[in-house]
Amino acid sequence: MGKSVLIVDDSLYMRTIIKDALEGVGFNIVGQAANGEEAIDLAFELQPDLITLDNILPDMIGTDILKVYQEEGLKAKIVMISAVGQESVVNEGLRLGAKAYIVKPFTNDQLVEAMTKA
Amino acid sequence: MAPNRIRTLLIDDSAFMRKVIGDIIRNDETLELVGIANDGEKGTEMALELKPDVVITDMVMPEKDGMYVVQTLMDKYPTPIILLSSLEKTNARIFDALQSGAFEFIDKPTDLEIVRIGKYPLVDLIREASRTDITVLKAKQLAKKNSHAHSFSQPANYDIIVIGASTGGPGAVEGLINNLPKNLIIPVVVVQHMPPRFLESFAARLTLNSPLPVRLADRNEPLKGGTIYIVPGESNTRVEFNHSEGEPTFVFTNKKYNEYNNPSIDCFFESVAEVYGSRSIGVILTGMGRDGTMGLAKIKEKGGFTIAQDEESSVVYGMPKEAFERGAVRQVVKLKEIPGFIISCL
User: Fold this and answer.
1) How far apart are CA B116 and CA B70, in angstroms?
2) Which residues of chain A, if any, have pLDDT below 70?
3) Residue A10's closest chain B neighbor by CA?
4) Whole-angstrom distance, CA of residue B58 vs CA of residue B316
5) Which of A2, B200, B219, B323 gives B293 a disulfide partner, CB atoms 3.0 to 4.6 angstroms apart?
């Protein structure tokens, strides 16, 4: 069985894109979160190997979620997904424990590479 | 006799067309006519036995038709198939046949003078068909459909998506738009090379599975978000900013472009670069020739995002290759990933 993944993105469309891309290369999608609250609850409940974390969510930003993960000692490796022009967000994310990042727009290969690198 | 001639098989119920098309093939030294059949069933049997490089078949035949030929051959012996359509029998089943793996369709010649002076483009089409990767034709449909809602940033980063396509385009365009989110907030405009009278049935076909309304663009019609427009083929189409209405509208023009006309991708893309500038996304899909490169380059020059379909998923890697080699492309993307890639730009 491939590594388990939690997908965090407020867009069902993007969650489906990410899910299909990762399942296609053997990752096991164990959960999807559409906001910060779900991202935190599901991360601790499911204890996935990896989390894809979109930075802009309706209730929280990704870097604040990373702080919670770090304080609570979550073991999952995090791949940040950010928009172009948010380099400072990426740097802060990496400082807060994210292992890799991708910048939108991205191809499946770029996503898989970041996930493999994390 | 030249070696490695392209072995072609012709299927048509009209003796006249068998003569006209047969002569075109016989008169070209790069082609060889290995068989002629007068109905779909016999033609398919001959194809399975003779294993031609390219099959040319009439679409409408009384017993087994072009659709039968495509379905049977793509199942038993996948071969590039060119469909012959006729003016008086325009048939929306052409699009089913393309989606089932046919390479392309071409109108039967109506004016034999055009054939005589060598302006009927069948020979070029046969050559392109013989070079195509059959696995691409076999796997034309996108396996999964994703038209879920997307959470757009407000406002979106781009205001328009424009798509240009030629040979192999109908299936590619269909797969692409069927995988756009149902709540898309910006317009999508498709410039597909095709005989004008087919464009309306093409739009009607796209409506069947599209999550968004699809329509042929009208003269002076404003572009609305969440609508997919197909530009018509009676002339070239531009977008212009209508100052009295305060919105971009479609305008038809008789201005001619070098690569292809009615509809010209360069014409439409160039106007998009002028009106929408950096807030446009331009996409070049599969197709013969060079149309679209100049227009895509202008979109890129103005700071818009430009995408080309990759070689592996292209039925004909002509237009995307030209655009890429001329530096007009920011990102090469596989066909099935283009919808998600575009949406992640927004």
Assistant:
1) 29
2) none
3) B151
4) 22
5) B323
pLDDT > 70? residue B88: no
The answer, yes or no, to whether residue B326 has pLDDT greater than 90, is yes
* Closest partner CB to A17 (pick from B153, B331, B340): B340
Q: What's the confidence (pLDDT) of residue B145?
A: 84
Domain extent at residue B246: 160-345
What is residue B38's three-state secondary structure? coil
Q: Are B133 and B233 in a shared domain?
A: no
Q: What's the whole-number average pLDDT of chain A?
A: 94
Phi and psi for A28 in degrees, rounded to 5?
-110, 110
User: Angle CA(B25)–CA(B27)–CA(B33) in degrees, nearest 5?
Assistant: 35
For residue B42, the domain's CATH number is 3.40.50.2300
Question: Residues 131-170, chain B: which have Cβ within 8 Å of A?
Answer: 144, 146-151, 153, 157
ipTM value, please give it.
0.90
Nearest to B57 by CA among B85, B23, B96, B16: B85
What does pTM read for this prediction? 0.90
* B185, B290: one domain: yes
Interface touch B144/A20, C-beta < 8 Å: yes
**Which CATH code for domain A4-117?**
3.40.50.2300
Q: Is the pLDDT of residue B97 over 60?
A: yes
pLDDT band at B298 (very low <50, low <70, confident <90, very high): very high
B112 within a domain of the structure (yes/no): yes
Q: How far is A33 from chain B (nearest CA, A)?
A: 14
